[in-house]
Amino acid sequence: MAGAEPGRRSGLPDIGDRAVAPAPEGAAGLSERYVRQIRLPQLGALGQRRLAASRVAVIGAGGLGAPVLSYLAAAGIGEITVFDPDTVDATNLHRQVLFGDADVGRSKAVAAAERLQELNPEISVRAAVDTVTPANALQLLAGHDLVLDGTDNFPTRYMASDACEILDLPLVWGSILAFSGQVSVFWGAEGRGVTYRDVHPVPPRPGEVPSCSEAGVLGMLCGVIGATMAMEAVKVLAGLGDVLFGRLALYDALRARWDELPLARNPERPAVREIEDVMVTCGLPGPTGPATDELAVAELPALLAAGVRVIDIREAHELEGGMVAGAEHVPMAELLAQEESSGGAGALDGAVLYCAAGSRSASAQRVLAGRGVSVRSLSGGFGAVAGSEIEVTVPG
């Protein structure tokens, strides 16, 4: 990845030159609640009006989305759309600080929108429980001034980047895993800027990169990276500072250190004209959302006793901690490929799928349902089996 001058010095347009019209005097953009940031000469009244006139889409209201949304709402972003089809789970609460115990089981988008509206009644927040997919991404993201991607899976990251390149929208991207985080701002800018595909030209192989649910993550890391994403968004929208265009910021929490890599657009890469669905390619969950047919751990013993196929779709290296006794092991990518090559012969109909925490099995269940194959996803995955009466065996 060769070096490139960041942001404005590389000829990329200033978001302030786009259709972000000043808000009228007395509007939310000049409310007393923003007086401390308006006093900053780099922002001032004009920058605040730009924020008040901005429309921002945030994909994901989880670990990164929670601080992103909180700070954008508090800063006075005029309109925020929260995209998240998932529901709040108890395992989210250590890092997704928009939610509390009373929100468990509720729609993340709806709960987040309600909390943001309480935080700042002067802005407009819209909850979108839609799953953003390659088929609808252009329609759902069009009309916004900027998109922030705080999701935790590769297919959605590629999809968001492709959609923003086609729509010519800046994309603030962040990623976290264990103790490390990354942040950058992508903007195709009609072929002049860097996008996610210039950083990761090839989707990872199945099982190559674990998810946060598998590798774990500290909640404070979400705050560091999410707040940085919100800062970059405000810089882009208000037209201030040196934005992370053409640069990848890397944070190591254990060393308490930021590093940086220069980025440049691959001149050999053709411009994106349509959105590719890379879900099966990289074998990781696609756009997030609950399974359309789930079962609880308490239902599993009776199904095992009845001879129902139970399939562990994790990767081989994930089985060291054991697997459900009586289950068979078929990694997700292999399972989907086998089903596709069989022409949907029905071998999987009625099976139960499980992964580490339920996200991959939910994704596979939705894909198979779209192909006319009926399977169920184990809610909570193998992590939910711990403490239950279900027998666990360690593969030899």
Q: Would you mind describing this structure in some detail?
A:
Strands 3-2-1-4-5-6-7-8 form an eight-stranded mixed β-sheet, sandwiched between helices. With 396 residues, the protein is an alpha/beta fold. The protein contains 13 helices and 15 strands. It has helices spanning 35-38, 44-52, 65-75, 108-119, 137-141, 154-167, 196-199, 212-215, 219-238, 279-282, 300-305, 332-341, 359-370, and strands spanning 55-59, 79-83, 124-128, 146-149, 171-177, 180-186, 247-252, 257-262, 294-295, 310-312, 323-324, 328-329, 352-354, 376-378, 392-393. The two termini are 43 Å apart. It has two domains: 7-279, Rossmann fold, CATH 3.40.50; 294-393, Rhodanese-like domain (Oxidized Rhodanese, domain 1), CATH 3.40.250.
Primary descriptors:
Rossmann fold; 16% strand; eight-stranded mixed sheet; Oxidized Rhodanese, domain 1; disordered N terminus; alpha/beta; five-stranded parallel sheet; globular
Q: Looking at the structure, what is the overall shape? A: globular
The CATH homologous superfamily of the largest domain corresponds to NAD(P)-binding Rossmann-like Domain
Distance between the termini: 43 Å
Number of domains: 2
Helix content, binned percent: 25-40%
Helix and strand pattern: HHEHEHEHEHEEHHHEEHEHEEEHEHEE
Largest sheet: 8 strands, mixed
